[in-house]
């Protein structure tokens, strides 16, 4: 089922009714520019979004459903056309100077890059960039050890209803088996995997999900 709400009032009633029936189809509300402000409630629902630019957002939404989009870019309030947005790379690392080469590569691929140096800072950043920040912000999050940062960051993202792809880049991937419990996460210790992951994001590849696994190896090193 693919649902597009074409009336603001109906758009508010329908998701409440559908979710009340424990039915979770993707749901996109299209409305006028003036009516868009009235659709902020959509942030309360998983698998739902709203927009005011029919010819681009709705067309891209339908195409994404057909191709099995992985990042679910349309699950948000006041969507912009996917073709007019840049991928956002958020990198959590306690020493940004040590990842300069990766950040430069991401910039060349036309990513918007945000570097965060601690999980405490990550919690604040996520809270300020999500619609449901007030009820989900931990507030009292304590600093954690480096080998726990990836897991904590992933929990923060998912706790705020963000389904973005997450790749954990670490020297000790054997400690990251927890990524297998998330459908849009992976871990690696290989530099090429990171570079290929960034390229996949830049190309907005929706079927390129080879990196969603524990201790990922480069594609050419993976047995057929």
Structural features, described:
It is a single chain. The protein has seven helices and seven strands. About 6% of the residues have low confidence. The strands form three sheets. Strands 1-2-3 form a three-stranded parallel β-sheet, sandwiched between helices. It is 34% helix and 13% strand. The chain is of the alpha/beta class.
Question: Helices and strands in order, then pairings?
Answer:
Elements: E1 3-5, H1 8-20, E2 27-30, E3 48-51, H2 54-67, E4 88-92, H3 100-108, E5 112-116, H4 119-128, H5 133-136, H6 146-159, E6 166-169, E7 185-188, H7 191-202
Parallel strand pairs: 1-2, 2-3, 4-5, 6-7
Helix pairs in contact: 4-6
What is the straight-line distance between the termini? 35 Å
Total number of helices: 7
Order of SSEs: EHEEHEHEHHHEEH
Q: Which ranges are low-confidence, i.e. pLDDT below 50, for 5 or more consecutive residues?
A: 132-144
Task: Identify the notable features of this structure and list them briefly.
alpha/beta; three-stranded parallel β-sheet; globular; two-stranded parallel sheet; 224 residues
Quick gist of this model?
This protein is an alpha/beta fold and 224 residues long. It has helices at 8-20, 54-67, 100-108, 119-128, 133-136, 146-159, 191-202, and strands spanning 3-5, 27-30, 48-51, 88-92, 112-116, 166-169, 185-188.
């Amino acid at each position: 089922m693919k649902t597009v709400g074409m009336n603001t009032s109906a758009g508010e009633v329908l998701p409440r009714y559908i979710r009340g029936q424990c039915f979770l189809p993707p749901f996109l509300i299209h409305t006028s520019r003036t009516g868009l402000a009235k659709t902020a409630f959509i942030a309360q629902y998983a698998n739902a979004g709203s927009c005011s630019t029919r010819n681009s957002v709705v067309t891209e939404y339908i195409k994404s459903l057909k191709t099995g989009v992985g990042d679910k870019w349309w699950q948000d309030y006041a969507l912009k056309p996917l073709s007019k947005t840049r991928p956002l790379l958020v990198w959590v690392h306690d020493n940004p100077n040590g990842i300069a080469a990766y950040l430069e590569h991401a910039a060349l691929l036309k990513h918007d890059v945000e570097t965060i140096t601690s999980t405490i800072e990550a919690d604040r950043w996520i809270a300020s960039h999500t619609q449901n920040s007030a009820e989900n912000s931990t507030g009292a999050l304590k600093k954690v050890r480096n080998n726990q940062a990836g897991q904590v960051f992933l929990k923060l993202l998912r706790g705020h209803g963000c389904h973005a792809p997450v790749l954990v880049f670490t020297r000790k991937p054997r400690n990251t088996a927890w990524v297998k419990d998330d459908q849009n996460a992976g871990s690696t210790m290989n530099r090429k995997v990171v570079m290929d992951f960034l390229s996949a994001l830049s190309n907005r590849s929706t079927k390129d999900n080879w990196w969603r696994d524990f201790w990922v190896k480069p594609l050419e090193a993976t047995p057929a």
